[in-house]
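Run: sequence + S-adenosylmethionine -> complex structure.
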Amino acid sequence: MHVPVLLNEVIDGFSSFKEKKGLVYFDGTFGRGGHYLKLKNLFKIEKSYATDQDLAAIKYANQNFAEVEISHENFFDFAKKNTNKIDMALLDLGVSSPQLDQSDRGFSFMRDGPLDMRMNQNLQRTAAELINECSELELFKIFSDYGEVQKSAKVVRAILKDREIQKFETTLQLAKMIERVDGWQKKGFHPATQYFMGLRLVVNQELEVTEQAIPLLIDQLNDQGRLAIITFHSLEDRIVKNLFNESKLGFSVYKKVIVPTDEECKNNPRSRSAKLRVFQKGLPPEKPDKFALRRLQRL
Ligand SMILES: C[S@@+](CC[C@H](N)C(=O)[O-])C[C@H]1O[C@@H](n2cnc3c(N)ncnc32)[C@H](O)[C@@H]1O
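>> structure
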């Protein structure tokens, strides 16, 4: 199962809706509905829309949450055509625990499976196709620009050489090759971590989709509506932070990014890199005028 991350913090992020009725909720990354389940019990949600690009999540939602209008698509595709105004919107980016744990989805460098990494099973291009078909420069860009690997040249050269003899088909085939070429630099940090992250981001176009969807979702919020976004990757968080700061339609609810407590990180190690930002549409509350009283006293 999937343990929802930063759950209390997401609830706090929507606390301005505590007393409101008839709320419209949008969950762009429904997963197993962990966040939704708690939110629907705490807030007076009248209508829920959701998307997930994974067929397994859609099946689960249809079986367990009949009241949610969920569609099997990317949240960007939903946002492009949505005409409903939204009060509360949540994007909990990245992969779910079931996706990571099922070896046949090909996300994990710890479990052997096909080198797939598609969240949406209808997508054409798998990670294996990128590894077997991309040019040297394209591979280098995937690992440095998306995976943030500082020195990937040796691994890229090894991919080009190895694939001449045998195509890459499985996760462990790639992970073991990276381990052989780069070796372990940091205890507890598998050398394939960032390479796999880069591939996953490119296979699913995750950064591009998030960057394009946020302005649309902000636009679709009601006045005082809120958009909460949880990221697990520094590049994703930078996109969210910049778009929230640049938007003329509202403001960031918290000055500082929200991260999990030590206790949450201990209980759920997958939450360790999570970051939450919350945006509110409309004008920010007026700051108290510290000098107003003094001016009055002078009169
Ligand atoms: C971290 S999980 C969400 C878990 C969920 N909040 C819960 O508590 O169960 C991310 C989910 O979002 C989906 N997803 C990721 N990016 C997406 C996108 N751009 N559009 C639609 N679904 C997406 C994944 O398939 C996955 O099921």
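>> summary
Residues 2, 4, 28-29, 31-35, 51-54, 57, 74-75, 92-96, 119, 209 surround S-adenosylmethionine (CB under 6 Å). Residues 7-97+206-281 form a domain with the Rossmann fold fold (CATH 3.40.50.150).
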